[in-house]
UniProtKB/TrEMBL annotation:
PANTHER family: TRANSLATION FACTOR. InterPro entries: EFTu-like_2, GTP-eEF1A_C, P-loop_NTPase, TRAFAC_GTPase_members, Transl_B-barrel_sf. Signal peptide: none annotated. Belongs to the TRAFAC class translation factor GTPase superfamily. Classic translation factor GTPase family. EF-Tu/EF-1A subfamily. It comes from Myxozyma nipponensis. Residues 100-165 form the Translation elongation factor EFTu-like domain. GO terms for molecular function: GTP binding; translation elongation factor activity. Pfam families: GTP-eEF1A_C, GTP_EFTU_D2. Gene3D superfamilies: P-loop containing nucleotide triphosphate hydrolases, Translation factors. Residues 179-240 form the GTP-eEF1A C-terminal domain. This is Translation elongation factor 1-alpha.
Length: 240
């Protein structure tokens, strides 16, 4: 039989963590499962008679169930930002014999269509999309959430790479940024962090070194309220 006290302990610890990063634990179902044996995956398990099921509350109402499958079914699909300009971070770029250069990635916003002229940033390469496909099927368009491969004209594999972002050359194409303001939560870090600190930034598929130029303000990570202007340092648990 499974331990109820251990389950409660995990729920408590995880709830504290997700509260820390700004989520409400009430919106998250907790399901004790065994992927190996299939407990509570599709059918209710006999190994935890104390488990009364999960509940979650969202803007659209409250949901309850017992299994992981029910919890997955209760996920509300996000609104797909189709009307925004195209942004497609590249996961990989392949060279396929007889076809040519095929960048692959997930459409984040907008739509990608055959015939569209796309610009890759920060590479600064502009070219026409010959075809778009997903799971080996030709598409008339790729929409947000779709993992697509698209064939581009006259671009070599050396010119574009993972981390680049494709956009529509005629509608607000993506551009490189010299600097930007970021909201950062320090979850766990030895010592203090000040201006000049150089972390590696992972943004979508890009992986690039950057530097904190100035610490603008320290904020409450739940409300976003300013707690201190121009702090010298931030440490574990702070948001800035």
């Amino acid at each position: 039989k499974w331990s109820e006290s251990r389950f409660e302990e995990i729920v408590k610890e995880t709830s504290n963590f997700i509260k820390k990063v700004g989520f409400n634990p009430k919106t998250v179902p907790f399901v004790p499962i065994s992927g190996w044996n299939g407990d509570n995956m599709i059918e209710v398990s006999a190994n935890c008679p104390w488990y009364k099921g999960w509940t979650k509350e969202t803007k659209t109402g409250s949901y309850k169930g017992k299994t992981l499958l029910e919890a997955i079914d209760a996920i509300e699909p996000p609104v797909r930002p189709v009307e925004k300009p195209l942004r497609l971070p590249l996961q990989d770029v392949y060279k396929i014999g007889g076809i040519g250069t095929v960048p692959v990635g997930r459409v984040e916003t907008g739509a990608i269509k055959p015939g569209m002229v796309v610009t890759f940033a920060p590479a600064g390469v502009t070219t026409e999309v010959k075809s778009v496909e997903m799971h080996h099927e030709q598409l008339t368009e790729g929409l947000p959430g779709d993992n697509v491969g698209f064939n581009v004209k006259n671009v070599s594999v050396k010119e574009i790479r993972r981390g680049n972002v494709a956009g529509d050359s005629k509608n607000d194409p993506p551009k490189a940024a010299e600097s930007f303001n970021a909201q950062v939560i320090v979850l766990n870090h030895p010592g203090q962090i000040g201006a000049g600190y150089a972390p590696v930034l992972d943004c979508h598929t890009a992986h690039i070194a950057c530097k904190f130029a100035t610490l603008v303000e320290k904020i409450d990570r739940r409300t976003g309220k300013v707690m201190e202007a121009s702090p010298k340092f931030v440490k574990s648990g702070d948001a800035a």
